[in-house]
Amino acid sequence: MPPYDLVVVGAGPTGATVAETAARTRGWRVLVVERRSHVAGNCYDATYPGTELLWHCYGPHYLRFTRPGTMAYVGMFTEWLPGNYVVRAEVDGVLVPMPINLETIELLYGQAPLDETSARELIAQDIVATPEPTDSEQFILSRAGRRLYEKLYANYTRKQWGRSAAELDPSVCGRIPIRFDRNPYYVDSPYQVMPRDGYTALFDRMLRSSPNIETVTDVDWTADRIHGRAATVFCGPLDEYFGHRLGPLPWRSLRFETEVVDQPWYQPCVQVNYPGVEPYTRKVEVKHVTRQVSGRTVVVTEYPSDVGDPYYPVPMKESRARYERYRKLTVRERESRQVFFAGRLGTYRYINTDEAIERARALADRLA
Ligand SMILES: Cc1cc2nc3c(=O)[nH]c(=O)nc-3n(C[C@H](O)[C@H](O)[C@H](O)COP(=O)(O)OP(=O)(O)OC[C@H]3O[C@@H](n4cnc5c(N)ncnc54)[C@H](O)[C@@H]3O)c2cc1C
Question: For residue 325, is it within any domain?
Answer without folding.
Answer: yes
